[in-house]
Amino acid sequence: MALHFDCLPTELDPDQLNDYLYLVKQEHNTPSNSYFKFTVYALRYVFRMEGLKDKRIELPALRRGGKLPVVLSKPEVRRLLSAPKLLKHRVLLATLYGCGLRCSEACNLKLSDLDFDRRMLHVRQGKGGKDRYVPLSEHLIRGLEKYIRSECPQTWLFNGQVQDSEEGLLDRRYNTAGVQWVVRSARRAAGIQKQVTPHTLRHTFATHLLEDGLDIVSIKDLLGHACIDTTMVYLHVAQSGRKKPFSPLDTLYC
């Protein structure tokens, strides 16, 4: 692990640990998986000895190797984005998809993170505590400007219920449960049968960029992944590069 990342294991963030364990599981997939298990046990021992038990002992769960992410088609995305009645909800969905955000990242967005002049969004303290910039679509900028004029959020971009307090009006942000409810409601209204979560829009963002010709390294940076292997899963779901597979029945009677 130290050679792989060129640093001590105790200096890694949970996202990097998760990526490394996934690689170990893929490369040492023996019937007993003993190599993988001993790696996990050794890491837990090191974290305990370094006094990092509370922070590190619960190692991230591994992604199942054979499970591919759910991805929406572009027509499905258009239906989903237009389904909510509230402008705020439509803009929230467009931001999740158009910027490839995690649910928590969308909740943490502030007005000060928007740079309309440079057409960039500053994503602060994403997974692993990393900051990154992602481009803002002209379509999204128009929607955001309209939403800001209409809703007048004060601090958080997507504010929840504004409540009275001793210090005046308190501008609360959306929480993850609220974002998940918006996505579920939009899926039902759009008549989409697939299971759709906020993270589905992030998967769809990456897959559509890959299908539109963006390279995998740039997609990795936009998603904020620590390791390229995490991003490589989208190569299995994107329909680009090679000729799309088809059945010989399609050409049998041509």
UniProtKB/TrEMBL annotation:
UniProt record, GO biological process: DNA integration; DNA recombination
Similarity remark: Belongs to the 'phage' integrase family.
The keyword DNA-binding is annotated on this UniProt entry: yes
Superkingdom of origin organism: Bacteria
Name assigned to this protein: Site-specific recombinase XerD
Residues spanning the membrane: none
Record key words, sorted: DNA recombination, DNA-binding
InterPro entries attached to this UniProt entry: DNA_brk_join_enz (IPR011010), Integrase-like_cat_sf (IPR013762), Integrase_catalytic (IPR002104), Tyrosine_recombinase_XerCD (IPR050090)
GO molecular function annotation: DNA binding
Domain Tyr recombinase: 67-247
Keyword Membrane: no
Organism: Pontibacter chinhatensis
One Pfam short name: Phage_integrase
